[in-house]
Each structure stands twice: as C-alpha cells, then as structure tokens.
Amino acid sequence: MPRRFPFHLLGRLPPAGDHVPDAELLRRFVRDRDPVALELVVRRHADAVWAACRRVSRSAADAEDAFQATFLVLARKAGGVRGACAGGWLHRVAVNAALKLKASGGRQPPDRFPHQGADAPRSPEEQVESDELAAVVQEELARLPERYRLPVVLCDLEGQTHAEAAKVLRWPVGSVSGRLSRARGLLRDRLARRGYGAAPLLLAPAGGLPPRLIPTTTAALSGAAPVPPPVALVAEGVLTAMRTAKLQLTAAVVASAGLLGLAGVGTYTVLAQDKGPPTAGKQPDGPPKAEPPVEGDWTPEKTQDSVPTAFPDVKPIEVEKFRDPAVYDAYPRLFGRQPVTVVAADDTGRRLLKARLRQGQLEMFVRQARQMVGQVSADEYYGQIGCLNDMRAAAGELWAREPAALVPWLEEFVRYAKQVERITEARTSAGADPPQSLNAARRYRLETEAALWKAKNPKAGAGGGPAK
User: Fold this and answer.
1) Has residue 334 got a pLDDT over 50?
2) pLDDT tens digit sequence for 156-168
3) Shortest CA distance to 68 belongs to which of 88, 94, 106?
4) Under 8 Å CB-to-CB from 126, ≥6 apart: which residues?
5) What is the pTM (predicted TM-score) of this model?
6) Using one digit for the tens of pLDDT, what is the confidence trace for 203-228?
7) From CA 203, how far away is CA 133, in angstroms rounded?
8) Number of domains the chain is built from
9) Could you tell me if 132 and 86 lie in one domain?
10) Rg of the chain over CA atoms, in angstroms?
11) Domain range holding 349?
C-alpha cells in the first residue's frame, strides 16, 4: 500500500457524527470504483464478520480466508446489496463462506482451543461443546429474517448501543430494542429445537481480529495485492450458491403461477360438471367410474412449453427450506429419516432390495448435505436422477402388491422430481442450461407421476383405457 494512502483515507472520512450509510458508500464504489468507500465498509463491519467467521471456522487460518472471501463477494455484488446497512448481508455471506471452508476440510488443522478466552480454564470436552454451540448460534442467526438479524449484528457483534444502531438503520430506538429481544427469543427457540435447551447465545464479539487482516483484505480488493487462491475458490463457491438460490426463487414464482392456473382450470371444470340436473331416486349399483382426465396440453410442440401435472396437490417444499435442515423432514424416505429396516420374515431377495434402497438414502443424504453448504452447483440435481430412479425401482419391487406402503414413497419421488424441474426451468430461462436439460427433467417428472398413478390405480389397464 502506498505510504500516502492512509492520509488520503483520513481526508476522505466523513466528519465526526456524520454517518454515511453503507448504501451510499457502496454506490460510490460501484459508480466510481472508489477503493476508499469500500474500505470504510470493510472497517465498519470487520468485527462482526470476523466474529461470524471465527466462531464457525475450525481454525484461525480458515477464518481469515472466510473473512477475505466475504469482502471479495461484497466487491462483486456491491450493486445488489439493499438497505442502508450492509451488516446483516455481510454476516450471512460470512457464515456461508466459513461453512463452505469447514465442509471442505479447510487448509489448516483445527485449533485445539480456538475460542479460549481469559475466563476460567475449561476441559477439552467443555471447550469442544462451547465451540459447536458458538457455530450453531451463528448459523441460526444467518437464517433469521433481515429485520431481526441486523439489530443482533450491530448491537451484539459490533458493540453498538441501541441508539447508535437506530441511527444507522434509521429506525426508532424502540424498534431496535423490540426486534433485538425478538431475535434473541427466536434464536433460543431454534437452539432448543437442535438440542441446546438452556444454552447461552454466545453472541459477544469474538475478539482477536488480526491487525494485518484489514490491510491485507483491502489491498486484495483494490488490486494492489493478488487474491490468494483459497480465498478466490471460497468466494466463487459462495457466489455460485447465491446464483443458484436466485434461480430457485425465480423457478418457485413461475411454478406457483402455473399451479394457480391449474387450480383455476380444475375449479372451472368441477363447477361445469355440477351444473347437470339432479337425478331422482337411487342410482343402480355399478362399477366405479374412471377418474376424469386432467386437461391440458400433454404433448407440446416446444421443449420450454409447460406440461400439466396429474398430481397438483403433491407439491415440493418452499425454496428457502431446500437448503435448510427442514428438507430432511420434508423428504424422510428419500434422505433416510425414515430408514428401511429388515425383518425376520424377509427372504434374501427382499433383504437385497432393502439394502439397495438404504444405500440410495445414504447417497441422497450426502448429496443434499453438500448442496446445503454450497459446495456444488445446481447441476448436482441432475446427477441425482440416476440414484432416484434406482431407488424407485427398488421400492416398486419391494411393495409391488402393497400400494399403501408404495404410494408414500412414490409421492416423495414426485415432489422431488418437481423440485428438479423447477430448478432446471429457471436455469434454462436464464441461459445457464440448454433446452434439452428441461426436456430431460420434465420427462423424469412425468415418469415418476406415471408410476404413482399406476400405484393408485392398480386395476386400471396400461394407460387407463384404449388408445385413441
């Protein structure tokens, strides 16, 4: 860094008591590529970002990489940060960067006592438990809505008073206090659900920010120093995960509109059928009538045209939950929350099928865990189709004569197939995937729906009727 740069920075600082919002500083950076504006944002939120990185990471070296990657992502996405304060956005990115490094094993062995302070010495077991709790708190804080996460970041991690935070956020002081209290309550509830019933929140600043880290980071951001390869790799992984989440959200909006349209068509059809005159007397007994076919264009000319679903009530989970541990509860059979067990009456053939199904559950669990930490892109969804097809075949052989046991499995397959189709549709619309990918995803969804329809209509012939 040039010798005169600190004096240049001091000359550009706002007057005492004049808080320039993060949004204005980021606007200057995007418009003028002003490195001073970006450095002010780095210095302003360094403590909170370091606290998140240090408490989630396995070692100080990994925390430093995650710290630099967080601000590298900010430099790339500065134009998309919303709100007057970037603190909440930066905290979430920092947690994701640290989790990504942690999942990959990091580049340094774990510190023996990474968060040991000046308190009374603790046993290794107590220290490990404290470190795990501190990481979980940061993860859950990153999942809170922005209006609750921001007061915690400013007051607890950056040490600001309620009045100072209110000035930064342009909120009434009462709103800061109320939302801070609400955020802490939400965190305690979420910790209790994860088995930390009476645990403290551990939201104090982590401390120990290396003095060289800010100059090193700002030099890399300004181009005065090269970006270390591990930092660039982590930043790119976080950016990929952000792009994937945006595509998923777009797909969910499009799919929701389509489902509403299908629901409207179905309502109109039912009302039209109910307009017939009532018949007098008791109807003679006879075979049950076949279900009316679902209307719509089932054989469109173009790949990107939508195709109806035979099961509009079988829906995938919300997009925001797909990278949350709640996904395992939403698909308990696919991810092994409802494991396959062998009983004494099973012969060797059934035991082989159950072992095959259990191996599929383990593979799906590992694939989903990698996606949740942003380690792979949305292309991973396509690689799951082979595993899912094999699992569906095994389940079909196991419970071929037991529809009550087979149908819940097939419904999960259909819901997940719809999730794959939504993601692929968004990626195709954005130009990230060719139209053939959407065609394959849609064909897979139709295949799973056909299997579910057959299981629910075991007495129907192939196709449910004569060919036209």
Assistant:
1) yes
2) 888 899 999 999 9
3) 94
4) none
5) 0.52
6) 766 668 899 999 999 999 988 899 99
7) 11
8) 2
9) yes
10) 27
11) 244-270+309-462
